[in-house]
Amino acid sequence: MSTTESNAVVSSKKVGEIIELLKFKACTKQKVYKDIQEVFRKMKKIAADLANEIDHNIQEVDKSVDVDFINVSEFEFQIKFSGDIIVFSMHSNIVTFPNEHILHKSPYIVEDSKRGFFGAIVVYNFLADSLRYKRMADPGYLLGRMFVNNEAHYYVEGVRQMSFLYPDIAKNTLTDDILKQFIESAMVASLEIDSQMPTFEQERVINVHHKLSKNMLGNIQKVGFKMST
Predict the structure, then answer these.
(1) SS3 call for 142
(2) For residue 125, what are the domain limits?
(3) Domain count of the chain?
(4) Interior angle at CA 103, CA 102 and CA 106, nearest 5
(5) How confident is the model over 26-31, as a mean pLDDT?
(6) I need a labelling partner for 227 at 20 to 30 A (CA). Which of 1, 107, 146, 189 fits?
């Protein structure tokens, strides 16, 4: 066999390998991405309905308390209430986990590694004034992360208030009720942890940047979130 023919055979094998990898990874990721887009659209609808329901009920108690749903983009929505904003974001990329992660020990994923690719939705808690006044130094807090695979099975990591979910991904089939519980639990977690003022020593000195940007009343933090993964 000539060098040219040998190179052609090697190239042909590489092309075949690329096609197989595309079939395994790219096609799977495309399906997962379409699925997580639909999940996020459902979550938006559920969040909007939930916010309207809570707002209607709390207005009968105190008209100064509002619960608002804010549709930011294809990849983000927010719920604003009681001085807090919880931000739900959908990742634009499909993700997997490191080999040592507990999910890779699941017989469900060992049986079919395609099940280990996930669309991801994360939820953060911010003080509403942090975003309103653009207080760049103020922290946001990760409340939870939901991962959904190509078979609509889900896995959740989150703070203690969001530990209602079953840990076995093989049994975790996503439903509208689970999406609603995920949103409600994020709101509960945000409401249960109050903002705390920094100590006097932490506030004793501010810089000119803080003064000019009107951020001297920032740096308020929430303390007490406990993760349950």
Answers:
(1) strand
(2) 3-228
(3) 1
(4) 100
(5) 90
(6) 107
As a whole number of angstroms, the distance between CA 211 and CA 72 comes to 30
Residue matched to tokens 């945000």: 190
Q: Side chain identity at 172, as an amino acid letter?
A: N
Query: If you average pLDDT over every residue of the chain, what do you get?
Result: 83
Please report, as a single letter, which amino acid is at residue 18.
I
Question: Rounded to the nearest 5°, which phi and psi values hold at 63?
Answer: -70, -10
Q: What share of the chain is helix, strand, coil (3-state, %, to 5)?
A: 45, 25, 30
Tokens of 158: 């989150």
Measured CA distances, 192 to 90, 112, 121, 159, 205 (Å): 25, 40, 22, 11, 30
The DSSP secondary-structure symbol of 198 reads P
The model's confidence at residue 227, banded by pLDDT at 50, 70 and 90, is: very low
Instruction: Write down the residue that tokens 């979550």 correspond to.
Output: 43
DSSP result, 71-105: EEETTEEEEEETTEEEEEEE-SS-B---TTSGGGG
Q: What is the pTM of this model?
A: 0.80
